[in-house]
Amino acid sequence: MPEPLTTILRVRYVECDMQGHVFNGHYLTWFDMAHSDALRRATAMSYEELVRAHGMDFVVAESGVRYRAPAHYDDELRVTVAFEPLTATSLTSRFAVDRDGTEIATGFLRHVCVDSEDYQKRPWPDAVRAALEAYVSAPVANEATTPSRPT
Fold first, then answer.
1. Residue span of the structural domain in which 86 resides
2. Per the domain annotation, does 139 fall within a domain?
3. Does residue 147 contact residue 110 with C-beta atoms inside 8 Å?
4. Is 151 a member of any domain?
5. Is 127 helix (H, G, I), strand (E, B) or coil?
6. How far is it, in rounded angstroms, from Cα 60 to Cα 32?
7. What is the pLDDT of residues 29-49, one digit of tens each?
8. Number of domains observed in the structure of the chain
9. Quick one: how far is CA 56 from the chain centroid?
10. CA atoms of 82 and 80, how far apart (whole Å)
11. What percent of the chain has pLDDT over 70?
């Protein structure tokens, strides 16, 4: 398996709430950032290049976050991404956020592949599927962050 798909970020002041913790919604933004970085590394293409080259797009169908410990201003965090096996039209990405080896949060995003013109669900292009499958890991069951399985 290739090197893990990891994004390093530093908590900005604007991401903190009145208690001095990172506000919960920012974790989904970080997941999206890490997902974009992971796609770029796995496919060697930017999001825009993927959409243009394959006539496809992907939309978030489901998401979840489990908060385990607070993050604070100026913390350096590592967001690691692992892909579950792709279905015909969907991809579930698992995220783990840690600070110096301490798990801060875990979560998932489930994307559905759609046609870039009419946004109708469609199968993943073979080249995209092959690139992502190189990073597939075993799914991690977690009742708070386990998406429903698409049919």
1. 5-133
2. no
3. yes
4. no
5. helix
6. 10
7. 999 999 999 999 999 999 999
8. 1
9. 18
10. 7
11. 89
Residue range 69-98: mean pLDDT, rounded: 96
C-alpha count within 13 angstroms, C-beta hemisphere, residue 24: 6
Tokens at 64, concatenated: 């979840």
* Residue 145 confidence (pLDDT): 54
What 3-state DSSP class applies to 38? Answer: helix
CATH (domain of 56): 3.10.129.10
Q: Rounded CA gap, 60 and 143, in Å?
A: 19
Residue 142 included in any domain: no
Q: Give dist(CA 66, CA 107) in Å, integer.
A: 6
pLDDT score of 147: 57
Confidence bin at 141 (pLDDT 50/70/90): very low
In a domain, 90, yes or no: yes
